[in-house]
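User: For a benchmark we're assembling, each entry needs the component sequences followed by a predicted structure for the full assembly. Here are entry 17's components. Please fill in the structure.
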Amino acid sequence: MKIRATQAIMECLLEQEVDTVFGYPGGTILNVYDELYRYQGKIRHVLTAHEQGASHAADGYARSTGKVGVCFATSGPGATNLTTGIATAYLDSSPVVFITCNVGENLLGRDAFQEVDSTGIAMPITKAAFLVRDARQIPDVMRQAFAVAATGRPGPVLIDFLKNVTAPSQEIDYTFIPWRENRENRESSGMQALNESRRTQKPEPDRQDIRILLEMIAKAKRPLLICGGGVVRGRAHREFRAFAEKLDAPVAITLMGGGAFPGGHPLTTGMIGMHGSRASNVACDECDLLIAVGSRFSDRVALDPATFAAQSKIVQIDIDRAEIDKNVVTDHHIIGSARRVLSLLNEEMPQYHHEEWKTRILPLRAPSAAPESEHLTPQQILEIIRQRAPKDAIVATDVGQHQMWAIKYLHFDYPGQLLTSGGFGTMGFGLGAAIGAQMGNPDKRVLHITGDGCFRMNCHELCTVEHYGLPIVSVVFNNGTLGMVRQWQNLIYDKRFSETTLDRGPDFVKLAEAYGLRGFRVTNRAEMEDALEQALAGGNGAVIDCVLDADEMVRPMVAAGSPITDFLLNEEGRA
Amino acid sequence: MKRQLDTKRKLYTLCILVQDIPGVLSQVARLFSRKGYNIESIVSGETDLPGITRITIGILADQGMIEQIAAQCSKLLPVTAVKILDEETSIRREVALVKVGAADRNARDEVIQLANIFRAKVIDVGRESLTLGIFGSGSKITALIGMLTDFGILEIAKTGTIAIERGRSTIYDDNKLKEEYDYGKHVL
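Assistant: Structure for entry 17:
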């Protein structure tokens, strides 16, 4: 069947069961948007205020639904505005297909209006970047892009179409091949090329490697599990939980692993690393077998690789071979998807009991409800959220102190419940991600937890929240400072608060109102309870501006590059 | 057991097989610039397999560095095989074209004699210059160039190092490591 090239782009999206795309139109992508106009009933387009917002929204959509997110932008500034979002998705292995258009073939490389080498820019921050110069390649490239984004270790892919490729006069042969149909039919020539050099037709974890790990487990007296982002991406939470319970070992959770293991589970020791709990960090220091699943031992987890789990054998389970021995040298590894490896382990592993070890580690978990105080504290805010918001509410955070507090005081129980920029640490990620999550999960409550610094970066997306009638509640931890940086200045830079004081507008309540949303300012516990109640009850979005002390700190804290139990700051209530 | 890595720097040759698609060379090369590593030499050429290009990169590195780079290369989708070769396990060769000033017959004769000693070939002769072509190890080429300096070198064109493993084993051989990298690249 002959159809227009742009029509093929839309049909390929439908093949992949895409029903929502995020984006922002412009000159070179006009033809694609013209086609989108015809597909209005089938593909919903969410128009953001800025391409960066669209990129984070597509990312948040992908993280929360487990599907591939899609984002459109035009050439030049449109494409470069995506880059922060692409890098954010890349560092956290989130599957997003970014579609941009570039100038026509006749102008390519002539520094034409809004021309930039988009694929070149995207190369270091994507799994693959395609430049499409021939309309006949469209179906092949689209199918490859989605396959690459979603398989293996997921990640972003960029497709850059030249404008002439999308011209209405371009017609190509196209056959609709539903994504779920059998593989032979789906295999396009490009995908064959991707696969033919690969040895195994059906990748399977190595059985010998599994047996070696089972032997190591049998000898271990003090095992510790690290639950990483790979468990979230691979949706291996059920297998992971079964494994943890059979192994009867404490489970430390990385920032990206949040949601993959129930936050309130009796084996959870909380986060590990720079702001890890005492229980997690001490367990890491004292264990004799550390099994990390889908974790790359980033410098925020293994602060000092040389002393990290020094008494322990280290085992890494990961889908990406390049992560093995990258940051921490391991004793053993298994390559495979978390879900497959863990279910193979579960099949053969007996039930263990590590009472003595658990008695050593688990009591170290910091208990304590928020102490009463006149002023509002971060812990109080999050306790109120935990008590009053639905248990399955999706939480999108920005980056900094509020992010660490949210991880510490909220419980996440399923993959995709916590959306946070872990690897890239993108301030301004949260609101876009919340919009994407709400679009992908219309029946769930979505909360956006942010700080005043982060919120100011991308708060223009409140117009998107308002326009689409999204009931997102933004809770702003407003301490009038760039809190995390100030914390470092407080502790390490002798209180020289260089350019971290954010003593400026806007008034977030008025800002919310200017965007047609409801705004609340709260200064104590009662006001917060009341405001959250009202915010959740209304049908539209709201902003709660929580006034906090500038010197609230994230506890505990280990300085960058230090051994994991050298706490610079202890937990509350400890000397 | 945790492995102990050799921390001594030496000249490694990294052989990389890639699918011949646009941008693949810069995709590989940027991995070196990202880490601030200097590429000593880089050669790209066809192989016996259609659509597969072999990129050979010379780099001064220690074992940890070279393994990191090899890992990042292996992970790239268009990369189908990576092999780290060092001096003991491989044959390395380069090609150089050297244009030497040789104004009179005596000078020409001497240059031709030198060429014979080094088993270089005289490829072009003019009234004022000679161009030699030489194929050999890096040290041999450096030695010849050193000798030719006396005559006045007008221009040098050199390829980087190409390398191949000694013995029966090839870059195509399957092994567990390759299989592990392939695991993450399957798209079906």
